Amino acid sequence: MNRRDALSRVALILGGTVAGAHVFLEGCQPGDKKTSAATTFTEKDTAYLDEIADTIIPTTDTPGAKAAGVGAFMTVMVNDCYDENDQKIFHEGMKLLNDAGKKKFGKSFMEIDPSARKELLTEIDKEAKEYMANKKQDEPRHYFRMMKELTLLGYFTSEIGATQALRYMAVPGKYEGCIPYKKGDRAWAT
Amino acid sequence: MPNDSTNINNKANLQNTYDAIVVGSGISGGWAAKELCEKGLKTLVLERGRNVVHPKDYTGTLLNPWELKHHNQLTQENKKESPVQSKCYAYNEVSKHFFVSDEDNPYTQVKPFDWIRGYHVGGRSLTWGRQCYRWSDIDFEANARDGHGVDWPIRYKDIAPWYDYVEPFVGISGSLEGLPQLPDGKFQPPMEMNCLEKHVAERINKGFADGRKMIIGRTANHTARVGDRGPCQYRNRCHEGCPYAGYFSSNSATLPAAMKTGNMTLRPFSIVMEVIYDKENQRAKGIRILDAETLKTEEYFARIIFLNASTLGTAHILLNSVSDAFPNGLGNGSEQVGHNLMDHHYGVGASGSYDGFQDQYYYGRRPNGIYIPRFRNISEKTKRNDYVRGFGYQGGASRGRQWTADGVGTELKDQLLEPGNWGMGIGSWGEHLPYYENKASLNKEKKDKWGLPTLDIDCEFKDNEMAMRKDMMESAAEMLEKAGLRNVKTYDSKPAPGFCIHEMGTARMGRDPKTSVLNGNNQMHEVKNVFITDGACMASSACQNPSITYMALTARAADYAVRELKKGNV
Hints:
The structure holds two protein chains of two kinds. Chain A has seven helices and one strand, in the order H-H-H-H-H-H-H-E. Chain A is mainly alpha-helical. In chain A, helix 4 packs across helix 5 and helix 4 crosses helix 6. By secondary structure, chain B is of the alpha/beta class. Chain B is about 25% helix and about 20% strand. Chain B has a six-stranded antiparallel beta sheet with strand order 4-12-13-14-10-17, covered by helices on one side. Chain B has a five-stranded parallel beta sheet with strand order 5-2-1-9-18. A three-stranded mixed beta sheet of chain B has the order 3-16-15, covered by helices on one side. In chain B, helix 2 runs parallel beside helix 8. Chain B is globular, with a radius of gyration of 24 Å. Strand 1 of chain A pairs antiparallel with strand 11 of chain B, so a sheet runs across the interface.
């Protein structure tokens, strides 16, 4: 069983919902690898990550990941929570993703339109899924898995994601074990 | 001027003299302080760490996830500074200030041992798991019956009135079940199970001939007010400190009660170096501390001393308190101090998913789960040949989310907005036998930053635990399958001893001073005015979460100590 399963189970075993969504954030689990302070993100990088995030979680009837500031969140998390190896993969991934876009559409990711971005990331998501299913345990994760995880985590724990896209109660005040649910009702953010 | 300095010394001694000293302000120290103060004793409470005042020092717990820089995730720096503490489920971006820095508080793992600690007023009562289960005579008679460890000098009838006494003040919610292996207590109304838990409970309760049962967890989260405390607001952020006092901690409950008497002096930043022994009177006469702020040594004196520094902390103090009379540590004629170290072995169980109840959800974040009380080796009928003692389960059901959904864009977002299928997991907590060779000892070569010897911890699970674990895993899957769950998967994350944070046994109770450290009143056989009522006193570990038993033993020992004090016996 991998650590992610272990953590999901811990969450279940504790019998409660886990504040935040750390159960699926593999990049931030205990490890003894070194942290690097050398990796940096530029403002352009943040804008680029915002667009990637917004392609993963776009604006619908609620604002998307860019509005929730997920690009900046990703940079903080990669800098502070990722080990050196994962930082490297993430930074290389930013380049690989852009290159894939150029190859497919002849333009950088920032230059292609939303539908082309979606087409590209759908392909890369498939590639990442396949890679993750076949990789050996100690091989690094796919860069797009990192981006997607950070986007989901950042978005659903953001104010917009938690309170507008999902339902959030800071202080529920009571517990009810069984309440009616109808299809379309939003999940609890925490 | 000799006369002057003598006067100053006498005056200092007088100022430093109390009726009682309590070492430690965690879950048992808080109770010792409350009981001794309420009985009129001027009591000094020594705490090695900083003060934590309820509720003002629960910084960060009212912040929303997006107001925290890392949305409550751990950083590489956290993991580097505290590789052991940061593994704890309760350690997060907010609660981390209730855990020690591993860098500053070294110990040696002779074998892997995760020592999770909180050095501040309230100790681990701020971050504890809050589950409260009485022991029964199945537990108190276990050592005598199968020959492991030494016989407990008490039985259920001795402690039952003290469970009755502490529970209403603690404020424990739970259901009355009439189970012999898990006696009922004085409970507040139970929390509710959710739909899937109710379903699984019904199947388990009907499905097994051995009378096993799934009940709602008994937790020190308050479903009704306890004086001016609570009730629980269902935020499920307990380990960050609760501004509503929705659960029991020393900070919210016992220490304020002690303070209210006007008899308590709380002294943070007081690192206990040793208990000072008076050979002539065969009594402890006080405590020598190192002030962590001034770095000065101070002495405090009292007629009775309660050691509540935690299982390993108390062992450390005893082993470090050497004198002519006790060259191997205070009250250690038995050579049992530091030995018989136990934890619970856990992190093993099963989980599965459930297709039904798509039209059901829940409201609020219940800081509690379900409990399946022990069902092995509790009668002739349930006796196993492959191991002695037993285990219980904790767990819970919830609706998941589609975190691993494929794709990107609107379809992905829409999928993630709705709750997913129901799932349920149960994990087991098993008894760890007392083995003499599982021990903590002083390492005089490796000093901490205060210049005190550190601990070498040498502890493991053995054959009995391993055989039990197999059953813990298989029975978990069997129950979930019987309850109709799909995709039932077992797991064993094999945590090291210590990681369950139920350390016990390093100064055990017993009937014979030759083989135990404490008598049936938690009084040192060899030093009659020293009482130990933290986890160190435990002669066996049972499989229930132990804190409520420490609390009951503490109140009982305080009552005895004060009666003995009044009779002039201590």
